Amino acid sequence: MYEWQQIIQTMIDEIDESLINHHSDQRTLHHLAKKLGYSEYYTTRKFKAVTGMSLLDYLKNRKLAFALKAVRDGNQ
After folding, report:
1. Which residues make Cβ contacts (< 8 Å) with residue 35, sequence separation at least 6?
2. Is 30 strand, coil or helix?
3. How confident is the model at residue 25 (pLDDT cuts 50, 70, 90)?
4. How far apart (Å, rounded) are the C-alpha atoms in residues 47 and 52?
5. How far is the C-alpha of 43 from the C-alpha of 63, rounded, in Å?
6. Cα angle: 39, vertex 42, 44; to 5 degrees
């Protein structure tokens, strides 16, 4: 399980980096699964098993967190 925790952390880092840099193509499930070398199905199942939330829910929450931070820190 420790190996998957490291893999999930890699995915999270990749998602955060793509959100910060506005690279929407890098946060797709297909891209992440391909980069890790696993199927999309297996990647989503393991992500949920390790984190307790679906990958889609995680993406939505991170987008919202980054948007809230931008509003808080900006002149918007």
Report:
1. 14
2. helix
3. low
4. 8
5. 20
6. 105
